Automatic annotation (TrEMBL):
Keywords noted in UniProt: Elongation factor, Protein biosynthesis
UniProt domain Translation elongation factor P/YeiP central: residue ranges: 68-123
Annotated GO MF terms: translation elongation factor activity
Organism phylogeny: Bacteria, Pseudomonadati, Planctomycetota, Planctomycetia, Pirellulales
Protein name: Elongation factor P-like protein
Gene3D superfamilies: 2.30.30.30, Nucleic acid-binding proteins
Length: 187
């Protein structure tokens, strides 16, 4: 695959490791005859470290033997999370430290979780961009403070603490962005 054909979300083999491309930028040449450079920022799927890749548009890079499978969370114990493929019922297990960024958003019955499979091994999970969670605890709003857009901390059902507008009450369901951890809207 040519470097100029790469898109965010593609998994390529770079220096022998699978890298999930996250973002890209194009740097046009300032001199006549110079090549356009494509700069990619990705994450090594195995080690979870950030990787920066700079290629010319005509450079060839190998696409990884990589797939995404729809899975369902079966259960978790203190060290691992156990997943089941929804098509062939194959089971996968991942150490909790490998998915520590996603666990505050995972609830029982969450739809849209996808396992990242590299060489028939589960190396991580993808969760939806936004999830709906219930507020377990938050302070009541003070009457008269609604003229300004002030926020207050709210503890969600998974233990995650998010800043929500003052008019949100305990027990309500809210949408949260899983990439940033920010409040999006009422559910």
């Amino acid at each position: 695959m040519l470097a100029k054909e790469l898109k965010p979300g593609t998994v390529v083999v770079f220096e022998g490791n699978p890298v999930l491309i996250g973002s890209m930028s194009v740097q046009s040449p300032s001199a006549r005859g110079a090549a356009t450079l494509y700069k990619f920022r990705g994450k090594n799927v195995m080690t979870k470290y950030k990787v920066d890749i700079t290629l010319k548009g005509t450079d060839v890079i190998e696409e990884a033997d990589f797939s995404r499978r729809n899975v369902q969370v079966m259960y978790s114990d203190p060290t691992h999370i156990f997943l089941m493929d929804q098509e062939n019922y194959q089971q996968y297990e991942l150490p909790l430290e490998d998915v520590s960024e996603q666990t505050p958003y995972i609830t029982e019955g969450l739809e849209g979780i996808r396992a990242l499979i590299y060489n028939d091994t589960c190396v991580g999970i993808d969760i939806p961009v936004s999830v709906e969670l219930t507020i377990d605890q938050c302070d009541p709003g003070v009457k008269g403070n609604s003229a300004t857009s002030r926020t207050k901390p709210a503890t969600l059902e998974t233990g995650l603490v998010v800043q929500v507008p003052e008019y949100i009450k305990q027990g309500e369901r809210v949408k949260v962005d899983t990439r940033t951890g920010d409040f999006l809207s009422r559910a």
